[in-house]
Amino acid sequence: MKRFGFLFCLIIPALMPASLLTADKFADAQLTSLANAAMWLPLVVLYVVLPFADYALGRDRRNDQVAGSPAIYAALPVSCALIQFALLWFVLNFAVSANWLSVSGWLGLVLSFGIVSGINAINVAHELIHKKSKLQTWLGGLLLTSVAYAGFKIEHVRGHHVWVSTPKDPSSAKVSQSLFHFLPRSIWNNSQNAWRLEAKRLAVFKLSAWHWRNEMLWWYSITIAIAAVITWQFEIIGLMVWAGVALMAITSLEIINYVEHYGLRRKQLPSSRFERPSPQDSWNSEFWLSNQMLLHLQRHSDHHANPRTQYQHLKNHTDAPQLPAGYATMFLLALVPPLWFKVMNSRLP
After folding, report:
1. In the chain, how many domains are there?
2. If pLDDT is split at 50, 70 and 90, which confidence band does 65 have?
3. I want to staple 110 with a disulfide (CB 3.0 to 4.6 A). Which of 40, 99, 244, 322 is the partner?
4. How many helices (H) and strands (E) does the chain have?
5. How far is residue 140's CA from residue 39's CA, in Å, rounded to a whole number?
6. Is the whole-model pTM more than 0.85?
7. Domain range for residue 156?
8. Cβ neighbourhood burial of 302 (10 Å; 0-12, 13-18, 19+)
């Protein structure tokens, strides 16, 4: 079942055309209120239906070997990457032609596609940028340009995975640090760190940080090119929608970072170094359905212990800190800090 269950990840990008086509049907029937409400369909599925389905289908604690060629599993993230760019064009084309959209409809469209892109662009890119193949890592970087956050390719691999669950990692929240205190600092510091890491790498070759070999310059040049094409094809309204979608995608990523490492700290050794990352440095979630849809992202402990492992082989660690629900539920819980602290602080090891 797990072998085919990963195909559930395709449900997430499919939510956008389902939402827009449904809205079009209502608009054609002069039911504009329902058409605008349809813009919120992806959020209803992801944050209402999915949590209930997660509990109904239960947990997956097994570490069975998943059958099939590694190439087949590698093809799934690549397919999601191609879908993301097609989806971007489709959504923007819809946005500029749907003259019946109300404020609520616009907000639902941007938030929905932002969350979908946070998963289908950033989560899929996260899988790709950890691989040895240059084709996969560069496709991951290209995918991140679709949401204007290509610095994640650099900082996540060379920063976050080195300093995870230490005070030096902007993506590891402290105990009783609220999400709203964490978010702006995480986004700003991660972007700064990506630039510093590239500058440090180039300094080894006695090159300026502004040298053309700086990955940040390449990726953000592509982002600017995407913005220019969007403005040319869809005018300012299209650019504004894309900017809102990108901001929402980036925000959703950092909320998940908050969930994944909240309150966990690696021990500092007498040498001032930190102990090696272990499964105890990340929160796990064992719920089967959301794990399949997120390509085992919720087996985050094993990902940090073995970052190059392909998603289908990631293991569940029963001794790792366990979240009480899947990421969708924890995402919502993090938005209410007093409730988050009440649930999570008592679970800290």
Report:
1. 1
2. confident
3. 244
4. 17, 0
5. 28
6. yes
7. 2-59+68-170+179-262+273-347
8. buried
